[in-house]
Structure formats: structure tokens, C-alpha cells
Amino acid sequence: MGRDEDRSLSIRGLSYALLDRRKMKRQILASVDLDVRKGEFVSVVGPSGCGKSTLLNFIAHLLPIQAGEVDVLGEPVHAFNPKIGYVFQQHALLPWRTVIENTELGLEVRGDGREDRRAHCREVLAAMGLAGFEDHYPSEISGGMRQRVSLARTLVAAPEFILMDEPFGALDAQTKVLIQEVFINYWERNRRSVLFVTHDLAEAITLSDRVVVMSARPGRIIADHVIDLPRPRDCEGLRSDPKFLHYWELLWGALRDEATRAMQVAQ
Ligand SMILES: Nc1ncnc2c1ncn2[C@@H]1O[C@H](COP(=O)(O)OP(=O)(O)OP(=O)(O)O)[C@@H](O)[C@H]1O
Ligand SMILES: [Mg+2]
Questions:
Q1: Residue 241 Cα, ligand 2 centroid: separation in angstroms?
Q2: What's the CA gap between 100 and 152, in Å, rounded?
Q3: CA angle (228 as vertex; 227, 232 as ends), nearest 5
Q4: How far is the centre of ligand 1, averaged over its atoms, from the C-alpha of 213 (Å)?
Q5: pLDDT, tens digit, 9 for 90 and up, residues 38-69
Q6: Which residues are in the CB-under-5-Å shell of ion ligand 2?
Q7: Domains of the chain, with CATH numbers?
Q8: From the CA of 165, how far away is ligand 2's center (Å)?
């Protein structure tokens, strides 16, 4: 990777171990190195339990670093950083706030005026297919809709670096393609740096500039592929592109043995 100022994320030698309930040491991450350029969309794929969510939690300063270095937007991670947005694997909406009240949370904390933030939130919620649901509570909407509210809440705050942990995992196949399109459209207009975790290789290829593959636990990066497909991306059309199949085979080749290993470890 080029000069330091071109980087929005730089991780060097990040390792992490914890003691499980039987006080046995469990290595979760093993010397992870990873860079993301400014405005680059990078996906992380890897078997279940390999440490993907853990990796994002270090970047968001939700876990204290034991070994290694993590720099985001030119600074070592040392505190909560409002320039980082995080769409969690579980939606994490506040049950006592309505859809729009959840969406405007970050803008409210930042001190934006009520009228402005409401107008902005309505716009983003409509783009997510949630017009008409602004005044519903999280318990009154489906799981997939909650996930979209969570995405809207992150996007309205326009973070410079976006962490996304399987944000579309709970969506049915049709809604997923529609939301991927809405999201990639938004991203292609704004070009924020994104680190995106997914189980879905097709999703990773469709959205990303680069896809990295993590090994079974302890997680480390075992493959790193540039996805050279034209933008703006046509999420549905792309799947019949021979290059798409080529990337899928390449990534699955790297992932297959790790997924098998992860299942054997889990038994
Ligand atoms: N408090 C804990 N005690 C023991 N093990 C833990 C604890 N927290 C996490 N782990 C282990 O850390 C590993 C990594 O967890 P993590 O949630 O980062 O995986 P992941 O790659 O995000 O998995 P998934 O794809 O299923 O979301 C797992 O093997 C998990 O069992
Ligand atoms: Mg996870």
C-alpha cells in the first residue's frame, strides 16, 4: 500500500487471546495485518467464529488492544471515535424509541436541530424502504426492517469510516438484493471507507473493491483479492459476468478448507 495519508485503516500484528470459562487460553486473532485505503470498500469473509466481529470491535475501541497496532483515520485507536460508524451484527435499536427516534440518535447527540435531522432521517429511511414506519417501535417491525433502521442510523451520521457486521444477514434474498443496491448506490456517491463483514461471497464480490479471507480461529488474513469489476455496480447483472464466477471460485477455494476446519474445531 502507498503513502500513510492514503490509508484510513492500518492494522499491524493484531493478536488477541482470552481465557474461556475453564480458564483455558483461547487464541482468537493471530497477528492480523490489514490496510484499507481512503474511500475503499473492503469485505472480510471467514468461517463462523474466526474472529470477524472481534476484529471490528478492536477498530471501534470496544475491546482493549493486547498486542499489535490499530490506526484509524491517521490516529492510533485510543477512545470512542465519532468519525467511525458501526452497523452491528445484532441491530441494537433502543426499544423505547420509535424508528425515526432511533435513526436520529447520532444527529441528536451531535446537536443537529430537530427539523433538519428529521428531514434527513425521513429521506434515508425512505431510501431503505421504510417510509410510513417512522413512528413504529422496533417491536412492531420485522427483523429485516430493524436491520435497515440500524443501517439508516449509521448512514445519516455520514461517518468517515464505516464498520458493518453482516448488516444484511437477516434479510430475505429479494430484500437483500434491493438493499444492497440502495446501499452501494449511496456508497458510490459518497465513497466512505468501509470494512464489511459477510458470510456471503456473492455479496462480498458485488459490493467490494477488495475481499480478504480470514482463516479459522485463531483468525489471520490468508487471502486478499482485488475485485476488478466496473462501477457503478449493477448488483443483479454482475452475477452473469464471467469475472464474477472467477472471483467466486478464487475466494471459495481459499475459504473451503477453513470452513471445514472451523466445523471440526467446534465439535
Ligand atoms: N467471552 C468469550 N469467552 C470465550 N470465547 C469467546 C468470548 N467472546 C468471543 N469468544 C470466541 O471468540 C471467537 C471469535 O468470535 P467472533 O464473534 O469474533 O467470531 P465471528 O467470526 O464474528 O463469528 P460469526 O461469523 O459467527 O459472527 C469465537 O470462537 C468465540 O467463541
Ligand atoms: Mg460475527
A1: 30
A2: 10
A3: 100
A4: 17
A5: 999 999 999 999 999 999 999 999 999 999 99
A6: 53, 89
A7: 4-83+162-168+188-266 (3.40.50.300), 87-158 (no CATH)
A8: 7
